[in-house]
Amino acid sequence: MFEILSKGFNQARDRLQGRIELTEANLEDALRDIRVSLLEADVNYNVVKNFIVHVKEKALGEVIETKVSYKGQKLKATPEDHFINICYEELVSLMGPVDTSIKRGPQPVSSIMLVGLQGSGKTTTAGKLARFLEAQEKKPLLVAADPYRPAAVEQLRVIGSSLNLPVFFKDGTPPPELCRQAIAYARESGCDTAIFDTAGRLAIDDSLMMELEDIVKSTRPENIFLVCDAMIGQDSVKTAQEFNRRLDLSGFILTKLDGDARGGAALSIKELTGKPVKFLGMGESLDKLEEFRPEGLASRILGFGDVVGLMQDFERVVDEKKAEEDAMRMLKGAFTLNDFLEQLQSIKKMGSLSDLMEKIPGFSQLTKGASVDDRELVKVESIINSMTTKERQQPTILNESRVTRISKGSGRTRRDVHDLMKRFNMMRDVMKKIGGGGLLSRIPGLNKIPGIGAAFNPSELMGAGLPALNQGAAGGTRSVSSSDRKKQKAKRKQAKKDRKKSKRR
Amino acid sequence: MEQKKERRGFFQRLKEGLSKTHTAIVRRIEEITAGKREISEDLLDQLEEALIGADIGIATIKTLMDSIRWKVQRKELEEAEKLKDALKTEILSMLAHGEKALLVDPARRPFVILTVGVNGTGKTTTIAKMAHLFKTQGHTVLLAAADTFRAAAIEQLEIWGHRAGCEVIKHASGADPSAVVFDALKAAQARGTDVLIIDTAGRLHTKITLMEEIKKVHRVISKEIAGAPHETLLVLDATTGQNAIAQAKIFKEALNISGIALTKLDGTAKGGVIVAICEELRLPVRFIGVGEKIDDVREFNARDFVDALFED
């Protein structure tokens, strides 16, 4: 009795707060929509079925927020929207892990064998791969192993000559022998990768499938890629499974994605063969080959682009709301270096600083001729990361010996540390000044800054450690991606090691 | 063996070509209906699943299933075993829109056929097969190599032209396709050729510039010969899924497509796309391709098709 009462009470309270639990009932429509959408994208029937059962299990019982309001911005998201977002995220993770590697063997010549149905785009893909490899300082050899289709050899020759790359063909030689000879020829002529362009064939054509098995036996290719038309329907799975059963594919390449095909085959094949998508063909010219990334393809297959976009906005606003709460807390208590670091990180999340600056009204005039170096943020971050918790909370305890330690730890000069502290103190002063006016609360959405122009000079705030302005440095802007940051971190680590080493000596 | 096959006649060969489609759909339906007397919702769901697996398309399946469900409700359909016949009738009525053979009109000389489609559907092969078919019907045939874009496309058509015994009008690779078409029209008129078949480059229906290019080719033809092209044939790949409908829709809007050739039906491909397109776009299917040889082409016959599809 009490349990029911309290449950009812909790539900009512959750509703008021805009929270709701995902249940079978409120997901019914979404489930139907997703099913139809995936089937329209040509995702295999069984894959759709399993996918829906799986995400449903995952989503049920999850408590989600259905509305947020923040700075007059009110956003609502239905349980269905949330569910679609869950599906999207699940799709992205299902399409991973990303593996776009091309394997190389111990022999001087490695090989890539392209197989697939007629008209899937093998010959064009062979040209694209050759170009891709050449750009990576490899020496590819194109091998025309399709003696059946009229002018297929000629087609590869034309492609080869347009790329200025060699093409191997021997009239009257059966493909398995031809490919074997091609490897020998590649070795002699100093090529390191042979690309076999085989004839298109049906997976049920036993004699032609045996020919492929013979090529595998005679050349032991390091890579066997199934080239698959993105427009393929429910048949994709049968084809892929049969090719995989007979040849043990290393992955597949999806072509003709520059059209409006949703590419459901990719998910179906990945799911049922477990083999990764390697590349995407995005156009007819030979430079239109991309390494696979799951995000774009996932939203394409799912087909709810607007909902996915909305949910990203929704989540961003939830983040912003949290930032505001943090800001309020800062105003009440002290502004510490930890808060400072957190702000840096949230600013970085919003994108490159130079992009961000452009969005601030009046700021472009202010920073005329100046550019913002995003790498400054990394510097600041590394310095703060080298401080102890106590130092971050009470920066006043910093003395010369501490500064020395921090500078060593972060791979920065002592001057860098002092500069940062100076800026930080300035910023804290500014905060004190504007505290109470509610201005700080606007920091996460920096675009409201003109309103505080009278209180202080914005450039001071911006100079206060957030973005450092390199006066006059033209065109030096660049956004720091997370991988770049990792690289830089690794570099600094290495530098630190090297320094230690040289000391020991 | 080639000859033996020939003697077995058209219907047999069609069935052979379709045998894979046949197994795919029929086996499922057999499995589903076997040993079951009553039509349950579960059974209908499974039936729907089989149709989805055949690429028939969600909208079409809904029409089919609604009609079947309605009959079940009205007790017109009560036994599970009769489900297959009912479905057969439904699909046949949808395909009836699509049964209209392509006949060369001798009053229109040259009878101009413009062949279009996305990349890799088998346009050039289909053209060779058509050329062969028309020649065996006693027509003179000229081919135009207006795919000046793809590497070795002209050579490919020349090899096929040689096999079919037809001359090919061509320019250099990279030339303006409209110019090739113009020359081919002039040549066909001068020679009094019965049929002129134009091969064009594969283009995705979403590429606006390429669709404009093909519209221009179309305009050049109509300007030169009033009423031409007499057939604008869209070549569709039977392995294609739901995107085939988008292709048909957009090509039809741009070029007023008058017929469809459905290729690669000799694989594990389903006939599902035909049903969807006939039902939604009311376009006739002129030919089906059932193999890589020059005579592996059939005129589309809805009854043969459905019979072969549902034969035990």
Draw up the topology in text.
The complex is a heterodimer of chains A (505) and B (312).
Chain A: H1 2-16, E1 19-21, H2 24-40, H3 45-59, E2 63-65, E3 67-70, E4 73-76, H4 79-95, E5 110-115, H5 122-135, E6 140-145, H6 152-163, E7 167-168, H7 175-188, E8 193-198, H8 206-219, E9 223-229, H9 236-247, E10 251-255, H10 264-273, E11 277-281, E12 289-291, H11 294-302, H12 305-332, H13 337-349, H14 353-358, H15 363-366, E13 370-372, H16 375-385, H17 389-393, H18 400-410, H19 414-434, H20 458-463, E14 469-471, H21 482-504
Parallel strand pairs in A: 5-8, 5-9, 6-7, 6-8, 9-10, 10-11
Antiparallel strand pairs in A: 1-2, 3-4, 11-12, 13-14
Helix pairs in contact in A: 2-3, 2-4, 3-4, 4-11, 4-12, 5-6, 7-8, 9-10, 13-16, 16-18, 18-19
Chain B: H1 2-7, H2 9-33, H3 41-53, H4 58-73, H5 83-95, E1 111-116, H6 123-136, E2 141-146, H7 153-164, E3 167-169, H8 177-191, E4 195-200, H9 208-224, E5 231-237, H10 243-255, E6 259-263, H11 272-281, E7 285-289, E8 297-299, H12 302-310
Parallel strand pairs in B: 1-4, 1-5, 2-3, 2-4, 5-6, 6-7
Antiparallel strand pairs in B: 7-8
